[in-house]
Amino acid sequence: MKTLLSIICRKKVKNSLFLLFLLFLYIAISAFSYANAVSSDIEKSVFRLHVLANSDTKEDQDLKYEVRDALLKYMNQLCSNVTTKEEVLTIASSHLEEFEQIAKTVITEKGYSYPVSIEIGNFSFPTKEYGDICFPAGTYDALRVKIGEAKGQNWWCVMFPPLCFVNVSSGIVPEESKSLIKQELNEEEYSIITKEESPEIQFKIGLIEWFMSHNLLTAKK
Predict the structure, then answer these.
(1) pTM of the full predicted structure?
(2) Is residue 135 part of a domain?
(3) For 100-159, what is each residue's pLDDT tens digit?
(4) Is residue 193 within 8 Å of residue 134, measured between CB atoms?
(5) In-domain check, residue 35
(6) By CB neighbour count within 10 A (0-12 exposed, 13-18 middle, 19+ buried), where does 216 fall?
(7) What is the 3-state secondary structure (H, E, C) of the chain?
(8) Can the peptide bond before residue 136 be classed as cis, meaning omega within 30 degrees of 0?
(9) In total, how many domains does the chain have?
(10) In 10 A of CB 56, how many CB atoms?
(11) Residue 193 lies in domain
(12) Is residue 157 part of a domain?
């Protein structure tokens, strides 16, 4: 009798452990699917500018900002009436030669002869705050500009929606930029990037960034 009870108990323990394992697996898959879907939607709504300096010398870093300002000025002229990321991508793709020439002109005028490489691609970025907007770490479409050896500190911003000139110290993003973001995201996703102060939203932000930090969410093409 004791042997029979022992066998039954062991089976119950094994079944309980198996059910716990299935529950854990279900939760893990659900969390991954959620994080992947949300990060994908956020990444798809953004187009960034990424400028890499030749080196970390003050001169090369100053040059990086000169190139940045010239490219942003030109891009803002081209996209002054644009309301979707797809439009921005189309315009940027059709003006790559102009971007390269603008960068080369700035570099030459400043007395340097560095080569310039410009491309549009899907690149990894860390978490970045723009005033009261926060984009989680992820892989975003971007216009990447490499100056010279491109071994210096890099600089990036969001070209669409237009956040490159947001005054970070003020902590406020213009409502016009926010409205463009709202068009691309659902209510919950928008709550995540605006860092809504609720335990649920903070947990979801942490969940997305955990998967990103462990390279479990792949680049979105």
Answers:
(1) 0.70
(2) yes
(3) 999 999 999 999 999 999 999 998 888 777 777 778 778 889 999 999 999 999 888 888
(4) yes
(5) no
(6) exposed
(7) CHHHHHHHHHHHHHHHHHHHHHHHHHHHHHHHHHHHHHHHHHHHCCEEEEEECCCCCHHHHHHHHHHHHHHHHHHHHHCCCCCCHHHHHHHHHCCHHHHHHHHHHHHHHCCCCCCEEEEEEEEEECCEEECCEEECCEEEEEEEEEECCCCCCEEEEEEECCCCCCCHHHCCCCHHHHHHHHHHCCHHHHHHHCCCCCHHHHHHHHHHHHHHHCCCCCCCC
(8) no
(9) 1
(10) 10
(11) 46-213
(12) yes
Which structure tokens are listed for 20? 């716990």
Q: What is the mean pLDDT of residues 11-25?
A: 63
Q: Exposed, middle or buried by CB within 10 Å (0-12, 13-18, 19+), for 37?
A: exposed
Contact between residue 118 and residue 200 where contact means Cβ atoms under 8 Å apart: no
Contact 70, 102 (CB under 8 A): yes
Say which amino acid occupies 38. Answer: V
Residue 137: left if φ>0, alpha if ψ -120 to 50, beta else—which one? beta
Question: What span, in angstroms and rounded, lies between the C-alpha atoms of 53 and 210?
Answer: 29
- Is the residue at 148 inside a domain? yes
